[in-house]
Amino acid sequence: MSLEDRPELSSSPSDPFRPDPMDPSEGLLETDLAGGDSGSAPKPTLLVVDDEPAVRRVLVMRLQLAGYRVVCAEDGEQALELFHNEQPDLVVLDVMLPKLDGFAVCRRLRAESCVPIIFLSALDAIAERVAGLDLGADDYLPKPFSPKELEVRIATILRRVGRGSAASEPRDVPAGNGVLRLGDLVVDTNRRQVSREGQRIALTYTEFSLLELLFRDPGRVVPRAEILEQLWGYPPRRAADLRVVDVYVARLRGKLEPDPRNPELILTVRGTGYASQRMGDGPLAAAG
Fold it and tell me: Which of 9, 43, 102, 123 is deepest in the core (most CB within 10 A)?
């Protein structure tokens, strides 16, 4: 479905946020949050892209209070320009934007970067979520939402991927378990890279983390709810939340399986979740 076919959104929604009675930023001005300890470590940089000034203002206040450096864009073209100038560690991206919509921005970012992306949207249909995740976004948060929930999801993703994820090559990557073989695939857990016959297969951080989780214990059935909690940091509250897992498994199969419709590496266990195929008689073999 094209953006033109989607329901027109009000330019001034009544309230894009769910009330949070424990909001510590209530009543604070942006200038109250701009300070900080100049001697502390560099703060992760977030790029917030939303065409609503009220949304940008609330998110800047909350995210600065949470310890992030925040830069803002109000349309898709400005978002791309700021991304290249600032090299943020994560992008919070609204779907309905002027000049260039959020899906188009995500598509362009994914063509050059594995920076984590969280979509925000008043469009809560399953099809919209799937479309965003299928472009390579790491998460999708429907409006109205609690700013605290957004903070938790940002913290979970940054904790998983580490700093410097906007570059095409990982920079601050903790040591892994070495180089492993999955059939004809070579998985380098130190550099978080996958290759087949010497050709690198581009995976986002979330896709690689999903691969690691499924093959950590080959043959074990991993419930979808467990995958959601392990990778995205929150339990499923409704059936739509688990679609995130299904979309990412489908994306991973599309990149790794010779025939994604008849998978051999990642198997579906109906009604439960997914299991990795055992390679040989034991756990993953070290490449050498």
Answer: 102
In the numeric block, which tokens belong to residue 265? Answer: 């590496």
Question: pLDDT, tens digit, for every residue of 175-198?
Answer: 345 778 888 888 888 778 899 988
Query: How far is it, in rounded angstroms, from Cα 155 to Cα 148?
Result: 11
